[in-house]
Amino acid sequence: MLISDRPLLGWGDAEYFEGMAQFSEAGRLDPATSNYWHSHSDVLDAWARRGAFGMLVLLAIYLLPVWLFREGLRARDPERRALATCGLLLPVGFAGFGLTYTFMAYSVGMAAYTGWFCVIWGLYSSLPPDTAYLDPSQ
């Protein structure tokens, strides 16, 4: 309901609580739901608080590692493939778990995602260039 009222710009952090309280007072929400400070979904929370642009930025944060590690998934070097797989599983895991809980609303959630991305990317990018890739037809 919050998203439908302000789909482009969102409510912001402070107004999110006010919006939830207004819906509760109007009888559109159970009053107990206004006690929750996030929506228990990363995508919904980003969209409600920061609007469509904020939701798209969150999706871009999830898709960046997929883009960066895509070539490594076909590498002949097993270390490169393993790190590329880790780099792919990081956003998949966070996005999957983010369907039922808002990890990115917490600074520790953002720090964990960013920290692990930096570790995996640092290890991956420090490998010597691999010009041999697996043939997908085999």
Short recap of the structure:
Keywords: Ligase, Membrane, Transmembrane, Transmembrane helix. The protein is mostly helical and 138 residues long. Helix content is 62%, strand content 0%.
Class based on secondary structure composition and strand pairing: mainly alpha
How many H/I helical runs? Answer: 5
> Hey, roughly how much beta strand do the residues contain?
under 5%
Strand-and-helix sequence, N→C?
HHHHH
Q: Could you give the count of β-strands?
A: 0
Radius of gyration: 19 Å
> Which bin fits the share of residues in helices?
55-70%
Q: Mean pLDDT across all residues, rounded?
A: 86
How many domains, as an integer?
Answer: 1
- What are the low-pLDDT stretches, counting only 5+ consecutive residues below 50? none
Distance between termini?
50 Å
Structural features, described:
This protein is an all-alpha fold. The protein is built from five helices and no strands. The chain starts with a helix and ends in a 13-residue tail after the last helix. The mean pLDDT is 86. One of its GO terms (molecular function) is ligase activity. InterPro entries: WaaL-like. It comes from Halomonas daqiaonensis. Keywords: Ligase, Membrane, Transmembrane, Transmembrane helix.
